[in-house]
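Hi P.,

Sorry for the delay on this. The queue was packed all week, but I finally got your sequence through. Input first:
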Amino acid sequence: MEEVTDAAEIAAAQRQRERFDRNFAWFQSHARDIYSRHRGSCVCIAGEESFVADSPENALALGRAAHPEDDGSFVQYIPREHFARIYAHRR
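Then the structure:
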């Protein structure tokens, strides 16, 4: 680990984080639709859009092709099934 003190690097990292935060907020607001329509797929969120593919590499390639400037994109695998966890306490 190293400490970054260069103002330009810090500003670039902050801009990247802002782009990620926007993409993640978009994902959260569309999660219900994404999860219901794309189970078993990989979804890349880039430019506040979703790109669906069968692998993370392909999803990321689609997102990067559409939004090459967005370095705040991410990929999320949508599980095939919804697993509900039930916690119970027994005495």
